[in-house]
Amino acid sequence: MRRVSLIRAFFLSRPMQRPRPSPRPASRDRLASTFSIVARDPKTKELGVAVQSHYFSVGSAVPWAEYGVGAVATQSFVEPAYGPRTLRLLARGVTPAQALARLTAQDARREVRQVGVIDARGRTAGWTGSGCIEHAGHVRGTEYAAQGNLLASPKVWPAMGRAFESTQGALADRLLAALEAGQRAGGDARGMQSAAILVVGRPEAGKPWTQRKVDLRVEDHPSPIRELRRLVTLQRAFSLGDEADQAALQGDARRAETMYATAVRMAAGSDELRFWRGAMRMRLGRHAAAVEDVRAAIRMNPRWRKLLPRLGEDQFPHADDVLRALRP
């Protein structure tokens, strides 16, 4: 989908609030004022970032993460370079606190920056410059750091931390819960526009690109956090469909049917999943059920009828039989 000295008090783990800005931001700075959270799942070792802002495409600037290294949220008058530069330092064994100390010491505009960092060991650091627009602050807890600026209330970032701590389940669910809590506590003072979530995990052998387990953005929407949760659910449904297809290819019909049934329930309005479940069922020899799936998909999206004859046997087995069954 980012010193002054090491004894600066910004490494405190308690919530903090900074005064109104004094330095003027440079004209080139992008105002990605927002609230975000970086976090780690100690069981799966996944790392993630979630963010919301009243700013177009906030996910293109704020979140950065690399499996086995760390996660970064860079925001306020954002300097995206904090993302890759922090990750490079973490990869070399530098702690999050040391990384932020080095980078902010080199940044003449550090007082308008806000950065949250977590590494692969769960260590965190936060920086909220004195020039960040109030309400602004950050909080660090076990396996997370939450931060925000230009907020409607100073309750936002503590609420995010509490929600992350109290929510069970996958890291993506805990990150979303933190965003939802931040919004309930007031959110961005300007309102809502865009949101993003990035979760990285152990990649498949020889396939480093598979580390991105969740990488979703809502660029412009009246309810971006709600839309982001919908997209996370939709991604899980399609992932289940892929796993079901693999199970069918391995001859495990019961597992394939169970997984596809769950996927279709999760994404009830998806003609895509209904169509490809039809293909899977033809592969398993369930002709009548396959025809019903394809018929349902065509009712939702008539273009499937034109696509079906173009598909090869490996893509949709016995497609001609389905086409004949669909004729009036």
Molecular structure report:
The chain is an alpha+beta fold. The protein has two domains: 214 residues, Glutamine Phosphoribosylpyrophosphate, subunit 1, domain 1 (4-Layer Sandwich); 91 residues, Serine Threonine Protein Phosphatase 5, Tetratricopeptide repeat (Alpha Horseshoe), CATH 1.25.40. 38% of the residues lie in helices and 20% in strands. The strands form two sheets. The chain has a six-stranded antiparallel sheet with strand order 8-9-2-3-10-11, covered by helices on one side. Strands 1, 4, 5, 6 and 7 form a five-stranded antiparallel sheet that branches. Helix 6 runs antiparallel to helix 7. The protein is elongated. The termini are far apart.
List the main descriptive attributes of the protein structure presented here.
five-stranded antiparallel sheet, elongated, Glutamine Phosphoribosylpyrophosphate, subunit 1, domain 1, six-stranded antiparallel sheet, alpha+beta, single chain, 11 strands, disordered N terminus, 2 domains, Serine Threonine Protein Phosphatase 5, Tetratricopeptide repeat, 328 residues
Q: Could you outline the blueprint of secondary structure elements for this entry?
A:
Blueprint: E1 30-32, E2 35-40, E3 47-53, E4 63-66, E5 70-78, H1 82-91, H2 96-105, E6 113-119, E7 124-128, E8 137-141, E9 144-148, H3 156-166, H4 171-184, E10 194-200, E11 212-218, H5 224-249, H6 253-266, H7 271-283, H8 287-300, H9 303-307, H10 319-326
